[in-house]
Amino acid sequence: MVRRTTVGAHYGFRDWLAQRVTAIVMALYTVLLAICLICLPDYSLDSWRALFSGGLMKFVTFLFFLALFYHAWVGIRDIWMDYVKPTSIRLALHCVTIFVLLGYAGWAAQILWRL
Amino acid sequence: MSKQRTLHFKIYRYDPDKDAAPYMQDISLELDGTERKLLDALTKLKAKDDSVSYRRSCREGVCGSDAMNINGKNGLACLTDLDALGDTVTLRPLPGLPVIRDLIVDMTQFFKQYHSIKPYVVNNTPAPERERLQSPEDREELNGLYECILCACCSTSCPSFWWNPDKFVGPAGLLAAYRFIADTRDETTNDRLDNLEDPYRLFRCHTIMNCVDVCPKSLNPTKAIGKIKEMMLARSV
Fold first, then answer.
1. 10 Å Cβ neighbour count for A51?
2. In angstroms, what separates the C-alpha of A12 from chain B's closest C-alpha?
3. How many A-B residue pairs are in contact by the CB < 8 A criterion?
4. Which residues of chain B lie closer than 8 angstroms to A11, CB-CB?
5. Looking at the predicted structure, is the pLDDT value of residue A1 above 70?
6. How confident is the prediction for chain A on average, in pLDDT?
7. Smallest Cβ distance to B164: which of A15, A17, A82?
8. Which CATH class is domain B108-236?
9. How is domain B5-105 classified at the CATH fold level?
10. Given a cut of 70, is residue B1 above it in pLDDT?
11. Which of A28, B124, B191, B221 is the most buried (most CB within 10 A)?
12. Angle (CA) B109 B114 B116, round 5°
């Protein structure tokens, strides 16, 4: 078993920056969605479907979800890094988190493009 | 000047040679009104019960040795006004570090992190005849950085340092890191940034600013950490 403490994985800055960039993407999308909702002619299922039927809306919504999942990945990984010390358990949790988030991304695409 | 009153201490006590576990002890102390700072009262308490242990040295906020947790907030006993404390004072050792005895903690881990950032100017250019000069503007950049007295109030109030004291440099170490990154006489800026480019060493800081809240010298480690991140950004884009 390795007993020495090791640091120096060079992705700290990249993920810190990615978390900020994804936060901005999500904030902009939230404003955009709020404006779109205010501009809806009525609050019915039809106008909701019409809002998401455009290719651009699908694209930006999917971009929002990707930003959300990357943001969540960095945040959840931080929690595992703080509280889960054994490397094997942490690796397993990292993998589960990645697969769950990838699954969510696929699911989001499926929901968006079947509308 | 304060008036005569009784101060009720609740002090964390632990002597590993005698006690199976730490406990809180209630001790009352009569103040005659001449005491101004918490350290004055502690000195009086030590005369009454010499088993109470704490570190102290300069008694004027320069050495940083009497850092402790005072009514739930880290601070220096010698800079804490007694009048501001009320009649009951709860004293505990700095959180997150191993306790040696009573209010004395083992600061090995704290200094290990401090040394890991190489707290000295590295310059391999042959030294000039007199000294390496800086412009007043370059020197100005070091204000608010060099004054740190390494009392550990900030690092031991930081949850990220509690969870990862072996990997996260901590606010005190990062303030010192920026002090040398910002120093125009230092030639190893890139190495220093590389040394912190890791998910733990710098980026465990989530900007909750406990460090700024407790610093007895009113320094701002969060601002220094932000500047390190800015420099990393500037060199990567």
1. 16
2. 4
3. 42
4. 199
5. no
6. 93
7. A82
8. mainly alpha
9. Ubiquitin-like (UB roll) (3.10.20)
10. no
11. B221
12. 95
What letter would DSSP give residue A5?
-
Q: State how beta strands B88-92 and B67-70 pair.
A: antiparallel
pLDDT digits (tens, 9 = 90+) for B64-107: 999 999 999 999 999 999 999 999 999 999 999 999 999 999 99
pLDDT of residue B60: 95
The pTM score is 0.91
The pLDDT of A41-50, averaged and rounded, is 91
- Report helix, strand or coil for B197: coil
- Rounded to 5 degrees, φ, ψ at B157 are -105, 5
Residue in B164, B198, B236 nearest the CB of A8: B198
Q: How many domains does chain A have?
A: 1
Structure tokens at A71: 């943001």
User: Hey, is the C-beta of B197 within 8 angstroms of any chain A C-beta?
Assistant: yes
Record the tokens describing residue B154, joined without a space: 């900030």
Taking the domains of chain B in order of start, what are their residue ranges?
5-105, 108-236
